[in-house]
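Per your request, structure below.
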């Protein structure tokens, strides 16, 4: 059975990533990239679906001293190098896990280092390609094994002998103080030249140097620096370096409610995340990554405006066909296990606002814009003019049929608003008067049809009496200021109805029609949005208190999933979740005095900037 979601840590090479549990088991890894088939899939099944464990050979390493071992773990400061320490009266060992930043091939490196005394250790690896289904053909090599299944090749090099046992590769060895035992697993294509064995000590030095240099660029110096740094390191790890695309999470089908069907594949890039991501990166000082993300977005948008999707693959792929891996039991029997994402075919009007807002902020934070880019955006606006009044599926990708979602209309307003501002500030030729008129029409329509007088709040969609946490972003995007009584009423209504135990639900799944059985955890990104909303309406002390509460939900190495189950007191949903960490970073900046930090909207900025 897999570990609790919060008991995993992340390692990665900026093209794919692995999850390592508290007991030294790698239970999830997709090769060669984030969205490829998993070769370790125990996370969604059991050990027979693929895992790689290194732990003491006797006793039960579960962090409980009475069971024989104490277990602790942490990342090396400012890096993505994971260190797990197993300790008892006889000795202590350190397990060092990392993935070198990829060169020709992707690799996982594991080093067992003796700290004190002598401990017996066991390595057990079960490779299963094709999401835990395919047993590879394994042969011995001089210092390990070679495993082949169709196009997939994995080679394990080890400094101790390896043997076969029940379709597994295992090794029993001892480690004494000052000794090191090394394992390196490299992936390659079976039809190409065999990947070369790496120099493990040098790979460790190079990997540590990479992360130290990267994290040293952080421009946040507030009281939450450690949390912001860890979140941005995680965001960097979820970046597909060849294209600049950022996956929402490295996992699929981790449930939003344990045992339920709300299980989705998040190994893709969402347009919904674009502005949030750009602001987190630029405020943090990572302009190269922000520029790469914007370039990915431009390539993804290329084509006919009426074919824009809400999400794309790592390289901009459009075909994300959803299917079910029915041989996997699902995380704690949460089925189905979905591969691909059918929501990619939905119409969501909010993405137009996100795209325009991203280019607006790229211009003002990096002076990065061109008239060619603006012409692409004009085509999108021409299409949005035709469809903005139509119902859509909304930001949460509901499967209960289209509605006139308030957030979607608000973000359509953002699209025309930012287009007008860009046109004005850069003196580009555009139908600004028409865009202004549509912008004002949308604003009036939302204020008239989306505000519920009885609740004194904006609601999820026109005519509804249900609330939606996305409306916390009204002041953030500049639709209405925090001083507006309707904004205050909305924030307070969400507090009353969508905050069980002081954390924010996206909406009430037991009442709002979304096409699925009710039940999910509180949504962590929405809870971070509430931090900014509370500050916007003048409740700064409450904003700070909520932020501190959210920080306490991070796991022992500072990671967050998509949601939190307040009853079980567990993280749920795909992990680690980029959206949660992006929201953490942006909330930390929101709580700071302005002093150079760029907020989500700066509609008062009127100076003319020079396009890059």
């Amino acid at each position: 059975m897999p570990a609790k979601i919060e008991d995993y840590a992340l390692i990665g090479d900026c093209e794919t990533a692995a999850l390592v549990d508290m007991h030294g088991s790698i239970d999830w890894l997709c090769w060669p990239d984030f969205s490829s088939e998993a070769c370790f899939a125990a996370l969604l099944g059991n050990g027979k679906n693929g895992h790689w464990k290194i732990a003491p050979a006797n006793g039960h390493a579960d962090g409980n001293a009475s069971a024989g071992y104490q277990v602790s773990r942490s990342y090396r400061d400012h890096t993505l190098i994971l260190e797990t320490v197993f300790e008892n009266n006889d000795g202590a060992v350190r397990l060092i896990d990392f993935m070198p930043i990829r060169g020709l091939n992707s690799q996982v490196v594991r080093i067992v280092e003796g700290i004190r005394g002598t401990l017996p250790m066991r390595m057990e690896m079960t490779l299963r390609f094709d999401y835990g289904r395919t047993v590879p053909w394994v042969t011995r090599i001089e210092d390990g094994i070679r495993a082949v299944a169709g196009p997939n090749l994995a080679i394990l090099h080890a400094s101790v002998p390896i043997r076969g046992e029940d379709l597994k590769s295992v090794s029993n060895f001892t480690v004494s103080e000052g000794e090191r035992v090394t394992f390196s697993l490299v992936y390659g294509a079976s039809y190409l030249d065999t990947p070369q064995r790496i120099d493990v000590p040098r790979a460790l030095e190079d990997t540590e140097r990479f992360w130290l240099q990267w994290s040293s660029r952080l421009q946040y110096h507030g009281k939450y620096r450690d949390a912001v740094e860890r979140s941005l390191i995680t965001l960097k790890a979820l970046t597909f370096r060849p294209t600049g695309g950022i996956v929402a999470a490295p996992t699929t089908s981790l449930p939003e409610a344990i045992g339920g069907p709300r299980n989705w594949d998040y190994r893709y890039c969402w347009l919904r995340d674009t502005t949030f991501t750009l602001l987190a990166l630029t405020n943090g000082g990572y302009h190269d990554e922000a520029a790469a993300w914007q370039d990915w977005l431009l390539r993804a948008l290329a084509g006919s405006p009426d074919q824009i999707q809400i999400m794309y693959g790592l390289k901009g792929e459009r075909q994300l066909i959803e299917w079910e891996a029915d041989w996997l039991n699902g995380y704690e029997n949460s089925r189905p296990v979905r591969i691909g994402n059918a929501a990619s075919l939905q119409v969501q009007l909010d993405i137009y606002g996100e795209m325009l807002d991203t280019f607006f902020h790229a211009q003002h934070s990096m002076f990065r814009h061109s008239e060619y880019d603006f012409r692409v955006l004009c085509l999108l606006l021409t299409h949005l003019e035709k469809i903005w009044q139509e119902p859509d599926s909304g930001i949460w990708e509901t499967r209960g049929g289209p509605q006139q979602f308030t957030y979607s209309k608000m973000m359509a307003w953002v699209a025309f608003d930012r287009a007008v501002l860009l046109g004005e500030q850069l003196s580009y030729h555009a139908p600004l008067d028409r865009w202004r008129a549509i912008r004002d029409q949308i604003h009036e329509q939302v204020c008239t049809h989306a505000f519920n007088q009885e609740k004194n709040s904006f609601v999820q969609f026109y005519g509804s009496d249900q609330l939606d946490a996305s409306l916390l972003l009204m002041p953030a995007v500049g639709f209405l200021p925090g001083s507006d009584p309707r904004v205050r009423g909305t924030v307070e209504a969400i507090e009353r109805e969508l905050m069980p135990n002081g954390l924010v639900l996206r909406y009430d799944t037991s009442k709002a029609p979304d096409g699925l059985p009710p039940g999910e955890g509180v949504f962590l990104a929405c809870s971070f949005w509430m931090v900014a909303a509370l500050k916007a309406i003048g409740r700064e002390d409450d904003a700070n208190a909520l932020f501190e509460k959210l920080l306490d939900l991070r796991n022992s190495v500072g990671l967050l999933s998509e949601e939190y189950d307040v009853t079980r007191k567990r993280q749920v949903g795909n992990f680690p979740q980029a959206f949660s960490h992006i929201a953490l970073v942006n909330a930390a900046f929101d709580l700071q005095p302005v002093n150079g930090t760029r907020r989500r909207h700066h509609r008062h900025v009127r100076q003319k900037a020079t396009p890059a």
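The first helix runs from residue 129 to 132.

Regards,
D.
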